[in-house]
Amino acid sequence: FPVENVRNFSIIAHVDHGKSTLADRLLEITGAIAKTKRNKQVLDKLQVERERGITVKAQTATLFYSHAGRTYLLNLIDTPGHVDFSYEVSRSLSACQGVLLIVDANEGIQAQTVANFFLAFESQLMIIPVINKIDLKNADPARVEKQIEMVFDIPKEECIRISAKLGTNIDEVLRAVVERIPPPNAGAADPLRALVFDSTFDHYRGVIASITLFGGKLQRGDKIMSSYTQKLYEVNEVGILRPDEYPVEKLYAGQVGYLIAGMKEVKEAQIGDTFYLQNHPVEPLAGFKPAKPMVFAGMYPVDQSEYSNLRKAVEKLTLNDSSVTVHRDSSPALGAGWRLGFLGLLHMEVFNQRLEQEYNASVIMTAPTVPYKALLSSSKLIKSRRGVQKSLVYIDDHRVMMQYLFPLNEIVVDFYDGLKSLSSGYASFDYEDAGHQAADLVKMDIYLNGHSVEELTTIVEKAYSAGKAIAERLKDSIPRQLFEIAIQAAIGSKIIARENIKAMRKNVLAKCYGGDITRKMKLLKRQAEGKKRMRKIGNVEVPKDAFIKILKRE
Ligand code: GDP
Ligand code: MG
Fold first, then answer.
1. Residue 243 marked ligand-binding
2. Ligand 1 contacts CB of residue 395 (under 6 A)
3. With b meaning 16 or more CB within 10 Å and e meaning fewer, what string describes 23-36?
4. Keywords for this entry (predicted)?
5. Quick check: 15 and 82 in contact, CB under 8 A?
6. Comparing 2-16, 50-64, 108-122, 143-157, which segment has the lowest mean pLDDT?
């Protein structure tokens, strides 16, 4: 395929502005998928994406589009919008020369519109502004065009107004892609350089690496070397994603596709690696900046005998989500486990859910914490602390963009939810790291019948209210047991909050009348499953999902 007819582009936007819906329409109009009413976010393939209605993984699809007597090969990459997954976006952009920047005609420019715009802008990509949802009753595309001119300095004439839902003006989007976005700057005659920008693990075929060819061509039987490991492989299969894997004879410079080469170990296909032909070494392409974790949590198998299975599952999942950092850890109560770093709380929840759904793993996650540098002092002074305003810019008559400096722990857990409800859903939010700052903080421990719950140890400023809130929520999420349970929050040896859970007699078989043995077995099995999701602290059983729930304040 001649490289001048190739276009690689991403769809970027604030969450819910319609990226995945536009991707559906682009797939339909180019015949990659059949047109039916059932096509809803078809690139969101993961169970967690379907259940939550959000994209967490960037997905690639190759489309063919004919225009003015030429057939173009378009590689489309749909990306997540949520701030926790912006690492996926920046990696995807390395495979692209342009982006469709989607803005909701009703909501206008939002926080991640700005953040994603700058990711594309810094990568010097062609940016095509697309105003979506013009079918909505309150749509005001003219206002959004003014915002785009004002904030991004893009002339409003360059905006394309569409409805991804109804399929209005989709052809104009495709025309803009082939007319405005340049072809990749790569030659098939150059030596092979294939950048790995994503990879997944398949039980039967091993590692499937998503690659962009910055030079050369690639086909079955080629002998290729990894720049990272210097290991040699023979290519078994190359192909494109339409959006399912579709084997092809050859991949050419400028194309995006996949590669299978008998890699059995997940460590062998590092994201950011460059493959080259044996005996034709090349300068490796700049990899990706490692993601910077913002939230940390411990993770342990519910059952220690599951440790090595869980280790394999974590290895495979982190191959697919390289923004998670993993360090081995162990705790006296929970045994061997890991300390994981995530980009945010949603990221942590999604990772946990994917482990359970895709790898059938049962894990305990400890309370999320953010990195601190501690200086021990005798003061236990508790001050309320606020964000410090850094800047304020008017986007238009109705909208302002404000920058504040906040302690990270104040914003990772529930700040976004609070902001949303305070502003009736109008405000949006994004953050970046501003480094460590000094603060007056105390360590607060939680006890159940005198046993410390180390998963819930946190570093707080407002210890009294935080302790009370955690104790109350624990009371709500721990089922009654055969004995009374005392819940205490303490700073050092000083108890600052207490709740009690009354004793109760629990007998699942009490519901069984007569001797229905199958019913009895079923109930016992259900109880055993329930137990699997419990973690025993001292003599108290705590449902494992309580740990995450408890730290999410209403
Ligand atoms: P993403 O988070 O950017 O991928 O957004 P989605 O494609 O998942 O869309 C978010 C929501 O907006 C879904 O409920 C879509 O049905 C809806 N939506 C997308 N495009 C349009 C549109 O053109 N008009 C209307 N009315 N709704 C749309
Ligand atoms: Mg989406």
1. no
2. no
3. bbbbbbbbebbeee
4. GTP-binding, Hydrolase, Membrane, Mitochondrion, Mitochondrion inner membrane, Nucleotide-binding, Protein biosynthesis
5. yes
6. 50-64
- Ligand 1 centroid vs 17 CA: distance in angstroms? 6
Residue 114 labelled as part of a binding site: no
Query: Ligand 1 pocket: which of 21, 25, 428 to mutate (most atoms <8 Å of CB)?
Result: 21
| Cβ of residue 193 lying under 6 Å from some atom of ligand 1 | no
Does residue 55 line the site of ligand 1, with CB under 6 A?
yes
pLDDT at 361 > cutoff 80: yes
In this prediction, residue 171 has a pLDDT band, given cuts at 50, 70 and 90, of very high
Q: Which of 11, 12, 16, 45 to mutate to test the pocket of ligand 1 (most atoms within 8 A of CB)?
A: 16
What's the mean pLDDT in 522-528? 59
Q: Which range, of 191-205, 305-319, 329-343, 536-550, averages the lowest pLDDT?
A: 536-550
pTM > 0.90: yes or no: no
- Mean pLDDT over residues 135-150, rounded? 93
Q: Measured between alpha carbons, how far is 93 from 85 in angstroms, rounded to an integer?
A: 13
Report whether residue 356 contacts ligand 1, using a CB cutoff of 6 Å.
Answer: no
| 403/429 Cα distance (integer angstroms) | 10
Choose which residue among 14, 165, 168, 170 to substitute to test ligand 1 binding: the one with the highest number of ligand atoms within 8 A of its C-beta: 165
- Arithmetic mean of pLDDT, 209-237: 92
Taking residues 227-252, what's their average pLDDT? 91
C-alpha distances (whole Å) from 383 to each of 371, 464, 528 are 20, 12, 46
* Predicted local confidence at residue 134, as pLDDT: 97
Q: Whose CA is nearest to atom 28 of ligand 1?
A: 165
pLDDT band at 512 (very low <50, low <70, confident <90, very high): very low
**What is the residue-averaged pLDDT of the chain?**
79
Is 78 marked within a binding site?
yes
The verdict on the CB of residue 163 being under 6 Å from ligand 1 is: yes
Q: Which residues are within 5 Å of ligand 2 (an ion), measured at CB?
A: 19-20, 55
What gap in Å lies between CA 241 and CA 34, rounded to an integer?
Answer: 16
Residue 498 in contact with residue 487, Cβ under 8 Å? yes
pLDDT of residue 378: 29
Q: Is any ligand 1 atom within 6 A of the Cβ of residue 18?
A: yes
Ligand nearest to the CA of 22: 1
Query: Which residue's CA lies nearest to atom 6 of ligand 1?
Result: 18
Q: What percentage of residues in the chain have a pLDDT greater than 90?
A: 25
d(Cα 197, Cα 273) in Å, to the nearest integer? 8
pLDDT at residue 552, as a whole number: 52
Q: Please count the CA atoms within 13 angstroms of the CA of 194 that sit on its side-chain side.
A: 32
SS3 per residue for 519-547: HHHHHHHHHHHHHHCEEEECCEEEECCHH
> Any residues with CB less than 8 A from the CB of 161 and at least 6 apart, and which?
105, 131, 134, 141, 169
For 467, half-sphere exposure in the C-beta direction (CA atoms, 13 angstrom radius) is: 22
